[in-house]
Amino acid sequence: MKYTFPLGAVIVLALIAWLGSQIPGMQYLFGIAVPYLAMALFLGGFCYRVIKWAKSPVPFHIPTTCGQEYSLPWIKQDKLECPVNTSQVVARMFLEIFLFRSLWRNTKAMVYDGPKLTYESSKWLWLFGLLFHYSFLVIVIRHMRLFLNPVPGFLHGLEFADGILQIGAPNLYLTDVTILLALILLFGRRLINRHVRYISLPNDMFPLFLIFAIASTGIMMRYFFRSGVDIINIKQLAVGLVTLHPVIAGKLSPLFYTHLFLVSTLLVYFPFSKLMHMGGVFLSPTRNLANNSRMVRHINPWNDPNIKPHPYSAYEDEFRENMVEMGIPVEKPLPEKTEA
Amino acid sequence: MYDSGKIIPGLIIFVLFVTFPVWYNHGDAGAVPKPELPKVAKKCVLPVAQMRDEHMQLLLDWRAEVLRQGEWGFIKIDGKPFQRSLQNACLKCHSNKKKFCDTCHTYAAVNPYCWDCHFARVKK
Q: Which of A35, A171, A234, B99 has the fewest CB atoms within 10 Å, i.e. is most exposed?
């Protein structure tokens, strides 16, 4: 179920676009209306989710730390694992966002004969994740050549670097290979690692299948089924979309509409799914707070201002007589009773 | 909302980043390339639509067969034989690289490495 349902959903979506785009006139739906709607839902949904998160109070000061905290001057602080001020937090966040540093610490629990329990370092997730995210980033930036006219210089550089092997024509992109490889590895990890397989859900599989379908339709269009993939018509449509004067100049391959429809699906799915970790990584209180709870008091926003602090001294004042009666030690003795 | 001083600028940067193509082009889609067609011939080796979509693969197949298997072969256009060659066939009719090849390649930011070895004839 957790494999067939998401796989079936991707196949149905692809078929809708493939067959739908062949009906005369429907090209405007799949080529223009759906992408606009998807982009609007993506941006709107993304902002909605971030603002909703920003409205949630953080009741406790909860940075996760895995190193020596700021202490006495002769004790060396671990500035990245236990940041104490904003610049250290920024450094930690930078490494988290650009290098997925916390995945570097991923461990795998194994039980051996004995019985002996071990926690071995398991860097596969980090490696596959890094490979996937950077490939996807380069692919998204590379697609800007279809949306920008004239094409800015840095895109030529990226295009050159990505196609540096000069294999075939159109030139083979390295990222096309690495993204498929990374997706297969990430999916394989969910199949083969039984701990991860047990906790995998359909909504973990769906984005994997969807992005795999997007990448493979793109690759098929570029290298294998070029009929009806006139890049000039496609660029005309893409530039038209972003200049708000979209035109469909010629007959385009159903493969192209399928690719576009699946990308639109991804955009719509994005804000309402686990893919929001793109925005969420910036808003994780366990990462973006400095471990300075002994220097700065964290006020819980939920606190009712009518409830005043009630320190121990006040507590003792309230219950001193009962405490003395029960033989519980008190800090301040009962006032001497004056003999009448 | 908490931390609105960081959230709002962050979201604005994100939206500007995503909509980069909109304000980069500022509403101007630019001219669609119109490659100059040769006057000497009316037909190419394949129909126009197929040439547009697949010419790069055709050229690559020619290259492989000519260079690796030594099969030059001849193609016929309107009964006239042509050698399978970029410089000796394609560029015979499409004699102006700037006005033919480059128009679309520049538009779509394609840098084919044909020209690493081949050179375009300069018209006298």
A: B99
